[in-house]
Write a sequence for this structure.
């Protein structure tokens, strides 16, 4: 085994590693200097409702079912009469 050749290869490898480390550090500095981007969150399924929206839906559905009951009652009375 040629020790001087092995030492030269190790020095060359160390040089490549140092250059790679410098390149990665430069990328890190670049990304850290950029303003943070807001990530868009994609949610699947139904969206959650706030308290105000939930109350509006509740009132709307109460009116809807009251109208349905009234329509059924008037239809039943028409059938009897």
């Amino acid at each position: 085994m040629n020790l001087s050749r092995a030492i030269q290869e190790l020095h060359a490898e160390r040089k490549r590693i140092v250059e790679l480390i410098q390149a990665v550090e430069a990328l890190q500095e670049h990304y850290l200097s950029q303003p943070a981007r807001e990530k868009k969150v994609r949610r699947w399924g139904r969206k959650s409702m706030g308290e105000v929206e939930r109350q509006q839906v509740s009132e709307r559905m109460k009116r809807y079912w009251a109208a349905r009951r009234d329509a059924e009652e008037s239809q039943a009375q028409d059938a009897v009469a």
